[in-house]
Write a structure and sequence with these properties.
With about 140 residues, this protein is mainly alpha-helical. Helix content is about 70%, strand content about 0%. This is Coiled-coil and C2 domain-containing protein 2A.
Length: about 140
């Protein structure tokens, strides 16, 4: 079926409300995470920024610290519970909390390792190019 302009306008008008609304959007800035004209350093710097945002998010949530605190509380309960059945139940919960904490710590370590790996790639690329395209610097503190 061939749509003429009048048929098309009737279809569109039947789905649209009678009063048209206008949405004005003011864009003050845009940050591209990838673009075909980006250099290799820009791509690595973008990935580094994304990894750092993930790191900040994980540090803000502090799941590892909460699980460590929970494990310490469970350990205190284990020391103070005389009932054998409750003791077995709490040991199982303590074990699962410890495993969950260990996996979260491993995720944190893996994220830090990937940040350092990407930074080393940026650094070696800068040394190879003998110039810098991006203003990123990495400071590590213990």
């Amino acid at each position: 079926m061939l749509l003429t302009e009048s048929v098309f306008s009737e279809i569109v008008n039947s789905y649209l409300p009678q009063a048209f609304k206008q949405l004005d959007v003011d864009v003050s800035g845009m940050i591209f995470s990838h673009h075909p004209l980006f250099s290799r350093e820009h791509v690595l710097a973008s990935r580094l920024a994304q990894l750092y945002d993930q790191y900040l998010s994980r540090q803000h949530n502090n799941l590892t610290g909460h699980l460590t605190d929970k494990k310490q509380v469970q350990r205190c309960w284990l020391c103070n519970t005389p009932v054998l059945l409750l003791d077995v139940f709490l040991r199982g919960r303590n074990r699962s909390t410890r495993q969950l904490r260990d996996t979260e710590q491993e995720k944190d370590r893996t994220l830090l390792k990937s940040i350092i790996k990407v930074w080393k790639e940026v650094k070696s690329l800068r040394e190879f190019q003998k110039f810098t395209n991006t203003p990123f610097k990495l400071y590590l503190r213990r």
